[in-house]
Amino acid sequence: MKKHNNDLAKKYVKDIKSADVWSVFRILSDFVKGFDGLGDLGPTVTMFGSAKAKSSSKYYKSAQKLSSILAKRGFNIMTGGGPGVMEAANRGAFEHKNVESIGLNIDLPFEQIPNSYTTTELSFEYFFSRKVMLVKYSIAYVIFPGGYGTLDEFFEALTLVQTKKITGVKIFLVGTSFYKPLMKFLENKLYKNGMITLEDLHIITLSDDLEQIVIDIENSLLNQIEILNISGLSDTKYCNSLVDFFKDKDATIKEYTNV
Question: Can you list the domains of the chain with their CATH numbers?
């Protein structure tokens, strides 16, 4: 393991010192790989969270359950492809053969070992190209407790929604006791000092109610279809994939939450 870490560290030093023109080709490779591998996905939910969460933890179990409910409803599940919460989310989706369990891994000198519950796995050189893929092809983001990487992904998604670079996408924080202090900080420091608006604050849904999250995601999907129709994109392949999702969805959501 130590030799592996040293080899990766040398690789990163070489990347930093190499000519920028060669980095461009690796960046292009990341984007081409992502666009080619993910372009035909139907409705997909991306789930973020700590790579260090144990399988016995409540957040691991909650991520697996939510993922299973969503997958049973027909949503693909996408994660960063590693252990912990990412593994739990892929594991929940992997139980359902009618959807994709997608893992977008990244080459790191530690921690990021691909989990074994993916049906589609892509590996990326750069965090920023990987983050583009994690948000570009999803209709909702669910963020479980995590560290710097999880918070980075959360605020990236939040900024994209706030600036209207993406529209109609819901952002959920799961783990009310964990994230409540963060929400208080956003309200007391950012909002009360005029740095964000009340509308910006309301982009985030803090909830541990998994059934309600599923309901909200499906409702937001209807909203996104409406936005595509208003924008004149009703005949696109992507819009049709969202519309097709609701075919044969007569059963209530509660019938699908017995998992």
Answer: 2-256 (3.40.50.450)
